[in-house]
Amino acid sequence: xAVGTSQTVTAGHPTMRTEQGRSMLxxxxxxxxxxxxxxxxxxxxxxxxxxxxxxxxxxxxKAAISTDKAQLGDRxxxxxxxxxxxxxxxxxxxxITALTPNEIRVQFTSTALPKEGTFVYDRSWNLLxxxxxxxxxxxxxxxxxxxxxxxxxxxxxxxxxxxxxxMLKRSGTSKILGQETVTTRAGTFETFKIETSYSxxxxxxxxxxxxxxxxxxxxxxxxxxxxxxxxTRSEHLLRDKGSVELVEYxxxx
Length: 253
Description:
The chain is mainly beta. It has a single domain (5-49, 58-250), classed as YmcC-like fold (Beta Barrel), CATH 2.40.360. It contains one helix and 15 strands; from the N terminus they run E-H-E-E-E-E-E-E-E-E-E-E-E-E-E-E. It has one helix at 19-30; strands at 5-7, 31-33, 35-38, 75-82, 87-99, 103-110, 116-122, 127-130, 133-136, 152-161, 167-184, 187-202, 209-219, 224-234, 237-250. Strands 4-5-6-7-8-9-10-11-12-13-14-15 form a twelve-stranded antiparallel beta barrel. The protein is globular. It starts with a strand and ends with a strand.
């Protein structure tokens, strides 16, 4: 997902016919994951250096699984890849630095621009703030507890740029497609596969529409996304295709 987003994978690489279009794409990719991407959420202790985490079994006998288990100090490291060129664009580290009953504050550092910053999420990993953008009530790209295969939900939001005053409208839907075992360099995880599709439209020029499809694998055992793929289109053309994948994590006991 602030696997937030965010940029989910790369920021500002696709070009659009207007500067406003370029801003929309940059905000889109940077806000997901944030995936962080981005995303809500004991979790297992981190494996020894160089060791893979053992698969964490998911109790599929339960009809639904909750998510809100985030802890102060939880840390995830993600690798961001441009799936069009196949190149690794950055490595991003995200750490929870503050928790309230309603919000999760995540500080990130990255090997690519922006080098550092802060994401603010609600307790379901929907993005609230990604300076200079604010999402009212939220960006809608998180998860919805309790998790259950087949569950769907929809969302609508305003995106407001606090610097320029620009406003965008977004609307979309999410669906939990199934449960899958996913292996990355961080280990093997039992996940829920969630697909989120939404559009973003400028209030000044409704003909300018950006459409995004994000497919994410959310692991309750680590309270976050293990992997997320994002495809961005505008004017019926592919503008960006990227992935964010977990390479390291630590749960703060």
